[in-house]
Amino acid sequence: MVQRGHKVYEGKAKIIYTTDNPDLLIQYFKDDATAFNAAKKGTIVDKGIMNNQISSKIFEFLSAQGIPTHFERRLNDRDMLVKKVEIVPIEMVVRNKAAGSLCRLLGLKEGMALLSPVLEFCYKCDSLGDPLINEYHIRALHLATDQEIETMKGFTFKINDLLKEFFAKLKLELVDFKLEFGRYKDKIILADEISPDTCRLWEIGTGKKLDKDRFRHDLGEIEEAYREVLSRVSR
């Protein structure tokens, strides 16, 4: 039986607690929702419960495909047992179609197909709004070594290929998503979560958005969208 210890970190969507094992943490999923760098705040009923289950299913799938992750097991509705990692302060964003900030940045039409996936690096810093950076910034700020950058890039593109196929079988299109990685015993492993909070998922055939964009843009049926993703992932 894992014993929850003290809180070590609270973010916008999760709280991290120590356990009686120094190598393991508890990741608690909240119902809080934020958008536009926390300029918009709200609550999505049972989001934490659904994201915990969705992330657990996806981590299990990726682990089976050879991707090292921090996931150990889901403990209950809102708690996930994870390896204790040192988070690399870089968000890896993969875009398969134009949406969100890419449209604003380059004047692209939402839904435009990209000839190849676009990988973006964002500096994980709430006070700065998680700005776009490049590999020169990463090196200059000592955020990651060259080897770590290449490892994260390799994993990210492999995960993109795996998840595009995974979601396509569920009649969902993976438009874009965000990943975070951590250092665990001198190795880079996947961390954080993978859920409708961190992915844009459009229903194949209808184009219906089944992700946090429903909250961002007041589209309604927010909880229903998360529930639909959970239902499909759980099949």
Explain the overall architecture:
- The protein has 235 residues and is of the alpha+beta class.
- The chain folds into two domains: 4-83, 2-Layer Sandwich (Phosphorylase Kinase, domain 1), CATH 3.30.200; 86-225, ATP-grasp fold, B domain (D-amino Acid Aminotransferase, Chain A, domain 1), CATH 3.30.470.20.
- Helices cover 29% and strands 35% of the residues.
- It has six helices and 14 strands.
- It has helices spanning 47-64, 101-106, 135-140, 146-168, 213-216, 222-233; strands at 4-10, 14-19, 24-29, 32-35, 40-43, 71-74, 79-83, 86-87, 90-97, 113-123, 132-133, 172-184, 187-191, 199-203.
- The strands form three sheets. Strands 8, 9, 10, 11, 12, 13 and 14 form a seven-stranded antiparallel beta sheet that branches. It has a five-stranded antiparallel beta sheet with strand order 1-2-3-7-6.
- Helix 1 (47-64) packs parallel to helix 6.
- It is globular and about 50 Å long.
- The mean pLDDT is 97.
Write the layout of secondary structure elements.
Layout: E1 4-10, E2 14-19, E3 24-29, E4 32-35, E5 40-43, H1 47-64, E6 71-74, E7 79-83, E8 86-87, E9 90-97, H2 101-106, E10 113-123, E11 132-133, H3 135-140, H4 146-168, E12 172-184, E13 187-191, E14 199-203, H5 213-216, H6 222-233
Antiparallel strand pairs: 1-2, 2-3, 3-7, 4-5, 6-7, 8-12, 9-10, 9-12, 10-11, 12-13, 12-14
Q: Which series of helices and strands comes N to C?
A: EEEEEHEEEEHEEHHEEEHH
Unreliable segments (pLDDT under 50, ≥5 consecutive)?
none
- Tell me the name of the CATH class of the largest domain: Alpha Beta
What number of domains?
2
Give the number of helices.
Answer: 6
CATH architecture of the largest domain: 2-Layer Sandwich
Percentage of residues in strands = 25-35%
Radius of gyration: 17 Å
Q: Mind telling me the CATH superfamily name of the largest domain?
A: ATP-grasp fold, B domain
* Outline type: globular
CATH topology type of the largest domain: D-amino Acid Aminotransferase, Chain A, domain 1
